[in-house]
Amino acid sequence: MWNILQNLHVVWKSNADKVVSRSRDCLVSSLLALAVLSLAVTSHAQVSPSGSLKRSPAEVVKRYVLLDQKGARLDAPSFDTLTPYINWKEEPAWGRVVVVEKTDVPDDYRKWEILNNLEVVIPVTFQVRGAVYLESATFIPEDTTEEVRFHVKVVGNYWRIVSPIIPPHVGLKRMVSFAREAEANEENKTHRTELASLIDSLRKAK
């Protein structure tokens, strides 16, 4: 009987330790979240610079994703509009553009990974329709869901996305418009035919 009680005590103590450990982990996570959010003033009435600590880091990610959807990374002049949100100075030469329909950037800090009060990871979900391969001007349809975990940290008193550097994720409608513009400016007849075929493929994906 005593052995049974001892075993019960050991089990109870082990479980209690686990509960305390989980509670402590939750408390630490909550405190870190409060530390992050205490830097951010969520009132939209307050004007503050892009990436300011007075804003939520999620706003930086939202803005970057929105500009990317609008095609800001498809040409060099537009890239300057992204610099207030990122910590890299130039883009790799991409041969592929991911075509997306919808994106979701969570405002709820409980869905983030909070590394410390100046560094978080925010998961972004993309509803992907396929990809355009630029060299061949072809669209390969593929309906899937992609999650990208954006690492955001304070750099020089501003929230900045530090990684990952992913291929452009452009909205379907914008990609159609981009292909039309390219077709209109293309002098080579063969290339115009390829672009027309690309436009037709993208329209079918709608």
Write out key terms for the chains shown.
single chain; 6 strands; 27% strand; Nuclear Transport Factor 2, Chain: A; alpha+beta; 5 helices; disordered N terminus; 206 residues
Brief rundown of the structure:
The chain has 206 residues and is of the alpha+beta class.
List the topology elements.
Elements: H1 2-39, H2 57-69, H3 76-79, E1 96-104, E2 113-116, E3 119-133, E4 138-155, E5 158-163, E6 169-171, H4 172-185, H5 189-204
Parallel strand pairs: 1-6
Antiparallel strand pairs: 1-3, 2-3, 3-4, 4-5
Helix pairs in contact: 4-5
Overall CATH architecture of the largest domain = Roll
H and E string: HHHEEEEEEHH
* Secondary-structure class: alpha+beta
Helix count, DSSP H or I runs of 4 or more residues: 5
Give the radius of gyration: 24 Å
Q: How many domains comprise the coordinates?
A: 2
**Mean pLDDT figure:** 82
Largest sheet: 6 strands, mixed
Alpha-carbon distance between the two ends: 71 Å
Shape: elongated
Using DSSP, what is the number of strands? 6
Task: Pick out the low-confidence regions.
Answer: 1-24, 26-35, 38-48
Indicate the proportion of strand residues: 25-35%
Any idea of the CATH topology of the largest domain?
Nuclear Transport Factor 2, Chain: A
Instruction: Tell me the helix content.
Output: 40-55%
